[in-house]
Design goal:
Helix content is about 30%, strand content about 20%. Strand 16 and strand 17 form a beta hairpin. The two termini are about 40 Å apart. About 50% of the residues are buried. The strands form three sheets. Strands 4, 5, 6, 7, 8, 9, 10, 13, 14, 15, 16 and 17 form a twelve-stranded mixed β-sheet that branches. Strands 1-2-3 form a three-stranded antiparallel β-sheet, covered by helices on one side. Strands 11-12 form a two-stranded antiparallel ribbon. It is globular and about 65 Å long. Helix 10 runs antiparallel to helix 11. It has about 425 residues and is of the alpha+beta class. It contains eleven helices and 17 strands. It has two domains: about 260 residues, no CATH class; about 150 residues, no CATH class.
């Protein structure tokens, strides 16, 4: 690792704490730090346009109010970073790579003060679904995973680091040969990515970005666009309703770890376990019908693959399954759909249930989801879900997960054509 890259890793700001709290900013490998006095003073004297906030608002109006409350904490320049046009180029600018601002629009979490960061988190809390390991909680756990990854990478790359891994890394330590990113991943960014004003690459919760594409409103069309390495949240609002909660990409490395306080995290366990119950219910004959001839090293419809749904559905048709197995299909779908507010998630699940008999389940590799190339797909008239195992990047002796949720007709609120 170069000296500049090492310094960037060590100076990365991370995001920790619980919902609604003013969150401390923590330096990877160091103590606590907050925005310095001169920065706070500048923010107070260069406040941007103030927008209306209605604390008693409900539904999408509550999301708009939370978005306005966040924008009201920003300077004019910061508001300009956050409020962008709803264009296809901006909307499709997301990635699973640790490529920072070079492949994502918006304001970076690590550039915010404690108060600003707390307001940003409140936007996500209001906009995303509640419940164990779904919605808002899943976002928090994904960011924690990225901090663990940053710490493990920094330790394994430091010549004077103690053996046994980073202090806040999981008990299964990172390989001493770990590098920043895999040598076989593409270095280009998705088609349509806007030019970047800065690098900001790497791992850590301080390298995530929030943008509002279009002006948050209960009447217009706009998108909440949040993400970083291993996360892309795209929720499109139109005339006071959610028009689309996809694409939604999420991944994790390490897949599970125990924090210093003894808390164990497994951000994608509920996602994985629903698929395991589903594939585990299939008979030998059903498994043979569901088996795909292709092999997969990553999700098929990842970044830059908008609209590239296969023309022919493959696998076993859900109409051929038993009532109990059909219920397992719906239960398997739910964790992905729960990335949006509960009311919208309920409506989407009703749609996917109506379309269940025209939905297909398929897999490649093995069904244990513990080996490179293990892959499961659910493909319906609307819903599309993929889950794949890849070899570890920093934790070379483990697999890590990539998964994506899309909707054939609701991606980006159906605002763009990808034909």
């Amino acid at each position: 690792m170069s000296r500049d890259r090492t310094r960037q890793v060590r100076n990365r700001r991370t995001w920790r704490g619980v919902a609604g709290a003013a969150t401390a900013i923590v330096l990877v490998g160091g103590g606590f730090a907050v925005a310095n006095a001169s920065t706070d003073s500048a923010q107070k004297t260069a406040v941007g346009v103030q927008r209306p906030v209605h604390k008693d608002a409900k539904g999408v109006a509550a999301v708009v109010s939370a978005a306005n409350a966040f924008l009201n904490t920003l300077t004019s320049d910061q508001q300009a970073e956050t409020l962008l046009d709803l264009t296809q180029a901006n909307a499709t600018a997301w990635s699973n790579l640790p490529c920072g601002s070079s492949c994502r629009p918006g304001i970076q979490t690590g550039s915010l003060s404690d108060d600003q960061l707390a307001a940003l988190k409140n936007v996500l809390k209001v906009a995303l679904g509640t419940g164990k390991s779904t919605g808002y909680e899943h976002v928090l756990e994904t960011l924690k995973a990225d901090d663990v990854l940053a710490s493990a990478q920094s330790t394994s790359s430091s010549s004077d680091a103690p053996t046994g891994g980073a202090s806040d890394a999981p008990s299964a330590t990172a390989s001493s040969t770990a590098t920043d990113v895999p040598t076989d991943v593409p270095t280009d960014v998705p088609t349509g990515t806007p030019p970047s004003g800065g690098a900001g690459g790497g791992y850590g919760s301080g390298i995530y970005f929030l943008a509002f594409l279009g002006t948050p409103s209960a009447t217009g069309t706009w998108q909440l666009h949040f993400g970083g390495h291993h996360l892309a949240v795209d929720i499109t609002y139109k005339d006071g309703k959610v028009a689309g909660a996809s694409p939604y990409f999420t991944g994790v490395e390490p897949t599970t770890w125990t924090d210093d306080d003894g808390t164990t995290y497994s951000p994608l366990a509920k996602f994985r376990d629903g698929l395991l119950k589903l594939t585990g219910s299939l008979t030998t004959e059903q498994l043979a019908e569901a088996k795909l001839s292709e092999s997969f090293s990553d999700v098929l419809l990842g970044p830059g693959k908008d609209g590239d749904f296969p023309e022919t559905k493959e696998g076993i048709k859900v109409s051929e399954l038993s009532p109990k197995q059909k219920k397992l299909v719906l239960e398997a779908i739910h964790p992905w759909v729960a990335n949006v507010d509960d009311a919208t998630a309920k409506q989407l699940m009703k749609t996917y249930e109506r379309e269940l008999d025209q939905t297909y389940v398929s897999y490649s590799g093995g069904t244990a989801l513990d080996t490179q190339g293990d892959y499961v797909r659910i493909d319906g008239p609307s819903v599309w879900i993929e889950f794949v195992c890849q070899n570890g990047v920093v934790y070379r002796d483990q697999v890590h997960y990539h998964t994506v949720y899309r909707d054939h007709t609701r991606d980006y609120g159906n605002e763009f054509s990808f034909s």
